[in-house]
Every structure is written in C-alpha cells, then in structure tokens.
C-alpha cells in the first residue's frame, strides 16, 4: 500500500516536474538541463511534504528536520543523477521530453527505496514485531 501511495504522490510531483520542464523550455526558452534542475527542485519540495504526511504517514514533528535534511540530501543526489542521465539520453533521443521521461523512470525505484529505508523510516517500537 505504501508503494501505491508513493506512486500517487509521484504522479502529482511529476506533473510539477514534467509540466514545468515543458513550460520552461517552450515559454522561458531554457535549455533542457537547466529546466530539469529547476523543476526537479520544485517537485522535490512538494514531494517531501506529501510523502511525509500521506505516503509514509509520519506525524512526529520532532523528526521533520532530520527527515528534511535526509530528503533534500537525496534530492541533491537525485537531481545530478537524473540530469546526467538526461544529458546521456539526449544523445540518442532527439526530443528532450522522451529523454527526460526515460531518465526519471530509471531513477524512480532507487528513489523510492532510499526514501522508504533511509529518509522516512520511523524508529520501531519493541511491540511492533518483525519488519514489513
């Protein structure tokens, strides 16, 4: 169920990311790599808040700073990884939107796993039993 919630939030975040990417390239005339950097950050801000509340249902306000630091560290890794992959894929795909979509899909599973295990994992209580 967590992965389904993650996917739903990612769809909204991807709307910000991909829609902004197309808009910044067509209206503002930004290059694909620059547009990607700007939109990844904007989508990341939205995704952090949504994943924290909806996906992983973290309610403890005391851990938000640590989670924020870990999430934006992950975003700091994700942005150059996907931008580098985008740059590589632009060599084979003439349309930037196709290359961006492929780069983002390739990074999705990695980002989910790191978010679940390292960013939003809550301390287990002794009565919780084995990990799920």
Automatic annotation (TrEMBL):
A GO CC annotation given for this chain: plasma membrane
Transmembrane segments: 20-50, 71-92, 98-115
Keywords: Membrane, Transmembrane, Transmembrane helix
Family the UniProt entry places it in: Belongs to the GtrA family.
Subcellular location as annotated: Membrane
Membrane topology type: Multi-pass membrane protein
InterPro entries to which the protein is assigned, alphabetical: GtrA_CellWall_Glycosyl, GtrA_DPMS_TM
Family annotation (Pfam families): GtrA_DPMS_TM
Keyword Membrane: yes
Gene Ontology annotations of biological process type: polysaccharide biosynthetic process
Protein name, per record: GtrA/DPMS transmembrane domain-containing protein
GtrA/DPMS transmembrane domain ranges (all copies): 5-120
PANTHER family (alphabetical): PROPHAGE BACTOPRENOL-LINKED GLUCOSE TRANSLOCASE HOMOLOG (PTHR38459)
